[in-house]
Amino acid sequence: MVGDVMYVGNRGYNRMGAFQGGGRQLLNAPDIGTAYLPAKQDPTLGTSTIPGKTAYANNLLRPYPGIGPIEENATRFWDRYHSMQFSVNRRFRGGFSFGANYTWGITLIGNTGLNERYVHAADGKISLRSDQAAYEKLMEKLDVRPHLIKANAVWNSPDIQSAGSIVRHLVKDWQISGIWTGSSGAAYDLAYTYTSDGGNVNITGSPDWGGRVKLGSNLGSGCSSNQFGQFTGAAVTGPGYNSVSMESGRNYMRYCPNKTVDMSLVRRISFGKIFNESRRLEMRLDVFNALNTVVINGVSTTATFNNPTAMALQNNQYLSDGTLNPARMQPKSAGFGAATGAQNMRNLQIQFRFSF
Length: 356
Fold this sequence. Notes:
Blueprint: E1 2-15, E2 25-26, E3 71-72, E4 77-93, E5 96-110, E6 118-120, E7 126-128, H1 132-138, E8 147-156, H2 165-171, E9 174-183, E10 187-188, E11 191-194, H3 200-203, E12 214-215, E13 236-237, E14 253-254, E15 258-274, E16 277-288, E17 296-299, E18 302-305, E19 339-342, E20 347-355
Parallel strand pairs: 11-18
Antiparallel strand pairs: 1-4, 2-3, 4-5, 5-8, 6-7, 8-9, 9-15, 10-14, 12-13, 15-16, 16-20, 17-19
């Protein structure tokens, strides 16, 4: 047997916002609160008590009016990862072998994947908002899987020389193998929409910035044995007006853990030799998710409210009396907080192969 214990870590700096420049910075985004300013109101739209309702068209709110987004690939991002990794393996001997690998993801933090929020001065100077550091601290949690384990085993049936001819041929040349996968679920966030008066320009005063949901008590972890309540939807509300996108962080929920067993059964039958070549029939049965384990990996994560003032949930999974909404009993019409998908259930594959 061989065992290993390792520390594995990574520190990245001067990185782009996302892989291959996928997260560009919006240099010409209207500052947060711009659509609230008196000077940015369109007099032809009259007046309204709803913030941003009468603001000019989006491109006229930009620091360079009439021009669409101006984007920059910036190398001002960082991340940091720490983990411990363990493995043990028994080499094949006496018809049996096994191995296991376990990764303990201790932490993964950073500001990759975020956007810098700017303030544009009258002289054209661009600077970060004063709360940018607090914003990045709130959002620094990245998706690290706390636990990941893979274990495998192989067993070959013995050739019992002392057994009778019939018994010997029945029990030899069988092979059973299996792989067990156990891992923490992926992280995810919750989101919101409004049916009216809740666009970005209303919530933050900038069409390029939205708010974030507010999280109440007893929210849950994001995984539950109740398919209709993976978390408590009633504990979530949308952002109000004058938001600065700091109501909640990211990666605070987690899908259900994976715990899947895949197995294989093989029988090999030899027929002697012809022209000095062995003839053999191999029958193989592969069973994926052999224990038929349900692992939910999709959830309805976007809450729809009527407007930021009333905050009445429109896609509720439960009615006001606590009973299930009869219109949302299927995954395709699931309400906020209900499961929408799961990994494949038990799946079998049979193969016959004759070699000569």
